[in-house]
Amino acid sequence: MAQGGGAKQVKLERESELRIEVGNDAPLKLRLLNGTAEIFGTELPPEIWLTFPPRLKFAVFTWYGATIEMDGSTETDYTADETPNISYVNVHAVLEERRNRAKASPPDDSNSSQPQGPRVIVVGPTDSGKSTLSKMLLSWAAKQGWKPTFVDLDIGQGAITIPGCIAATPIEMPIDPVEGIPLEIPLVYFYGHTTPSNNVDLYKVLVKELAQVIERQFSANAESRAAGMVINTMGWIEGQGYELLLHAIDTFNANVVLVLGQEKLCSMLRDVLKNKPGVDVVKLQRSGGVVSRNAKFRQKSRSHRIREYFYGLANDLSPHSNIANFSDLSVFRIGGGPQAPRSALPIGAEPAADPTRLVPVNINRDLLQTVLAVSFAKDPDQIISR
Ligand code: ATP
Predict the structure, then answer these.
(1) What is the 133 CA–ligand 1 centroid distance (Å)?
(2) 283-312, pLDDT tens digit by residue?
(3) How far is the CA of 132 from the centre of ligand 1 (A)?
(4) CATH of domain 84-105+114-284
(5) CA-angle at 17, arms to 13 and 23, nearest 5°
(6) CATH number for the segment(s) 9-82
(7) Which residue of 114, 122, 128, 360 has the lowest C-beta tally within 10 Å?
(8) Within 6 Å (CB) of ligand 1, which residues are found?
(9) What does the pLDDT read at residue 248?
(10) 112 class by beta-carbon count within 10 Å (0-12 exposed, 13-18 middle, 19+ buried)
């Protein structure tokens, strides 16, 4: 129910949270009056008014009690005293122990047995709170001085950069609840679609590339290796989506699999991973505060993310256009269109199309309103997604 404007105070008891959906048209101002509180793992500064943009959905949680003041209109706001945050912070404590152990153990001569921090992968259906849990674990770790690597494999709603990409970045400070992930040194691979089913093999190639680069960074940097990584995944968990989860677990050598809100997925993963030594599969409860978003809402938030990429969160960037001749540009699509599924081929035959083959694209009206990536490749034979 929409709540009217005007300032109001909300007193939160210990271990409870204020869940808010900001109204569609105007931002909401909020501040911490007393006590301590956090938004998805990042502490609120005392007394300072913060401004949250329209449509943002978030929760202000307190471990020991707090009073919050807010000013502006909300779509919904209510207090909840049942949250899974204690189980989430317990996971954080276990990860913390592993980071300390990795930091304390002397490096081995052979690369493969260098001390490793936790490699956490968060999986679950759509709207189970995967991105939110990833943010919490990263922010709690950063608060304790670690610089864990955030890997976002969700090309649909990407939290690091524009949708259609997979990306990774070290998190050096608790994540700002309004501004999100800082974009200083992200490692980004452009996939170009919002669902992996357009070219599953290309998606896998990019995931593998990203994992290899992080692996190299980890082997050269004991500090990031000990801090480990948190990998956010897509909500596609059936059929091919499930295969892609297994592929990601394997490629990143994940050793902690956090399954949000789905018994079936958890038991399937436990079953296939039971022969992999050192991989823990942990089931966690979905928070009742996670807001379900329909296809239309997702489409809208993708458009907002794209706009934000070019214009900035507060319209503070000024992109400019460049004019070039069509003849000076070469546009390629990666992968030669949809492949025949294996099941449609004779037994033993492999699909012929190479998922990373470049297909020249005619520049015409079909390209209007599409986002392309600029390649650093010197010639088209090099893979051009990065
Ligand atoms: P996807 O299906 O896109 O992968 P997801 O599983 O990652 O989704 P989130 O993005 O974490 O889900 O959560 C969905 C929405 O619910 C987000 O807008 C998030 O800010 C909001 N949300 C999560 N937890 C809470 C909470 N406790 N109170 C209020 N809003 C919340």
Answers:
(1) 9
(2) 999 999 998 888 888 888 888 888 888 888
(3) 6
(4) 3.40.50.300
(5) 130
(6) 2.60.120.1030
(7) 360
(8) 17, 19, 57-59, 124, 126-132, 154, 157, 235, 287, 289-291
(9) 97
(10) exposed
